[in-house]
Structure formats: C-alpha cells, structure tokens
Specification:
The complex is a heterodimer of chains A (181) and B (123). Chain A has 181 residues and is α+β, with helices and mostly antiparallel strands. Helices cover 38% and strands 26% of the residues of chain A. Classes of the chains: A alpha+beta (181), B alpha+beta (123). Chains A and B meet through helix 1, helix 4, helix 5 and helix 6 of A and helix 1, helix 2, helix 3 and strand 2 of B. The complex binds adenosine-5'-triphosphate, FE2/S2 (inorganic) cluster and magnesium ion.
Chain lengths: 181, 123
C-alpha cells in the first residue's frame, strides 16, 4: 500500500469486523521528534492475549475466505522499516487500541496520503458507527466527531448524499488549514 | 469556511425531500470489497467515486456499501451491483474511471456493462 491513510482504513476495517460502534483515530505529527504516530482505538470485541500474539503472525486470521491475515503484519512492516513500531493493547469485551509509530524523515516512510478519503469511506458506508478523528501537526490541531454532526442531523442520515458532500468539504478545509502555514 | 449552520440548512432541505419521497421501492445496492487486498488494489477511490456519482446524479434509490473479502483477490477491486429482481452483477478490476459508465448504463438504464464484469475479464 502506498499511503499510510490506506493502512488506517484497513485497520479500521478490523475494528468494524470486531463489531465496534465507535472508532477513534488520531494522526499526530511531531516534526521536532521526527515522529508520525497513528492511533486507532475501537470498542469492539477485543482480543485475548493469545489472539493478540497471533494477530502479529501473518498466518493467523479469523477470516474464512483466505488463510492468512495481512493487515497488521503489513502495517508492522511499514512502521518497522522506518525504525518505528506497532503496539496493540486489547481487552476482550472492551476493545482494541493499535498504535503505529513512524520515523517521518526515513527514506522508507510512506506519505500519510489522503486521510479524508479514508474517513469518507467509513462515514459513507457505516454512518451508524461514531468516528472521532484528531489530527495534530506540531502545535496545530483539529478534531472532528461525527456524533456532533448526527446531533445536528437528527433523523437525516449522515450518509445522505448532500450531507456527505458537505462533510467531505468540511474535512478537506480543516486539513488544508492545518497543512498550509 | 464550512459552518455547522450550513449543515443545518442541508438537514432541513433533506427533511423536506424525505417527506415527499415515497419510500416503498427497494434500493439498488452497490457493494465494494474492502478487505486488505481490495484496499491495496484501489477500492477506496472506487467506493468514493460511486458515492460521488450517485450524489451528483441525485439518485435517491441507491445505497453504496462495503463488504470484507469477496474471495478473489486477483480481481480486486471488486464491485457487486444488486438491482432488486435481477441477478447480481460482479465487476472486477474496477477503477474510478469505469464508475460513471457503470452508474449510467447499469444503475440508471438497467444495462450491465458486460466488458467490465468478472466473467468477461476472466476470459
Ligand atoms: N480491532 C480488532 N479487534 C478484534 N480483533 C482484531 C482486531 N484487529 C485484528 N483482530 C484480529 O486479528 C486478526 C488478524 O488481523 P489482520 O488485519 O492482520 O488480518 P485479517 O483482518 O484477518 O485479514 P486482512 O486484514 O488481510 O483482510 C483478525 O482476523 C482478528 O481476529
Ligand atoms: S482476501 Fe482478497 S478478495 Fe478476499
Ligand atoms: Mg484486517
């Protein structure tokens, strides 16, 4: 995969598969410490210690259509090739938090890419799931919480086409503002 | 800047439309495979392109959805189009530039784009 934002989508798919109804995503760039940290926390089914150990192994998967799970091992490779790492904290019945740390300046560090497109896939296809997104670039930051949109929308669904168009421009404006200084 | 007041206005317009629309026809479903292999092959822009095309053409009766693995990695991105009362049509190796034609020919006019289907691509 060519962008870190695609890994975010893939890891969030694990959260959805685990039955999460809330996913918290944060992307924190710290240029002084030369780190880019992605955190994805869900309130899905969680994993036991054994499942967690197995999730690090490409030959472990609970999927039935293919024999290997690729998502987490691929992300781990992408992080470790920059000198970073992946950590998973998980409690059965409570949820899972995955943290991936990248060394920004490393030649093998993939670009973050289009996080807004990743968020839009989640918002469009799983409007029932609450998405919280926090983006930090050094001292600048913003937060988007789809719960807030839903409060305003009431009975109008979050994936109403006109609503989605608005949400996407809202996110893109914030992203541009954060980057452009 | 986009404001939350704009979102309120969009909500109010959507409510008016919800009231006049008759909701008894079953929706057409577009389902995009979003397992790791699908994402790696380009499913994300394909899903968003479908949603944008549906919004642009103001198609009220189409739902864009995702699923996990469809089981044929080498043909990803895979998109299934389910029109009520018709057999499911599976498109393979879909790219964003194929989306408009699938929406117009198949979803609007009822003619599946045979050359994009998995059966055609496998040959
Ligand atoms: N957030 C999570 N909550 C609960 N279980 C998880 C979570 N993330 C991963 N797992 C478990 O770890 C396994 C391995 O995950 P991984 O993403 O590597 O592969 P996969 O999802 O099975 O397949 P792929 O990602 O290749 O489509 C999953 O099958 C699942 O059992
Ligand atoms: S794993 Fe590739 S299609 Fe499912
Ligand atoms: Mg996975």
């Amino acid at each position: 995969m060519r962008e870190l934002s695609l890994y975010i989508l893939d890891i969030a798919q694990n959260s959805l598969a685990a039955g999460a109804c809330e996913i918290k995503i944060s992307v924190v760039e710290d240029t002084n410490n030369d780190r880019l940290t992605i955190k994805i926390a869900d309130n899905g089914s969680g994993m036991t210690q054994t499942q967690k150990r197995q999730a690090a192994d490409p030959f472990y998967t609970t999927r039935t259509t293919r024999k290997v799970g690729l998502g987490i091992p691929l992300l781990r490779m992408a992080a470790e090739q920059t000198g970073g790492r992946v950590e998973i904290i998980s409690k059965p019945g409570k949820g899972t938090t995955l943290t991936a740390e990248f060394v920004r300046s490393h030649i093998d560090c993939l670009p973050l890419g289009d996080v807004v497109s990743t968020l839009m896939v989640l918002i469009r296809t799983r409007p029932d799931v609450d998405i919280y997104y926090k983006r930090v670039l050094d001292s600048r930051s913003y937060v988007v919480d789809t719960r807030k949109f839903k409060e305003i929308l009431g009975d109008v669904p979050l994936n109403n086409p006109d609503v989605s168009v608005w949400v996407e421009s809202y996110l893109r404006e914030h992203e541009i503002q954060l980057a452009g200084h | 800047m986009k404001t939350l007041a704009e979102l309120e206005a969009i909500r109010d317009k959507a409510r008016e439309k919800m009231n006049i629309r008759n909701n008894n026809s079953e929706a057409i479903r577009v389902v995009v495979g979003m397992a790791t292999c699908g994402i790696a092959a380009g499913a994300r822009p394909v899903l968003n392109a479908f949603a944008e095309e549906v919004a642009k053409r103001r198609l009220e009766n189409v739902v864009v959805n995702q699923t996990g693995c469809i089981g044929m990695c080498q043909f990803e991105p895979i998109v299934e189009v389910l029109v009520p009362g018709h057999e499911k049509v599976t498109y393979a190796k879909v790219t964003p530039d194929k989306v408009a034609r699938i929406v117009v020919d198949h979803i609007v006019n009822g003619n599946p784009v045979m050359e994009y289907t998995i059966g055609h691509i496998m040959k």
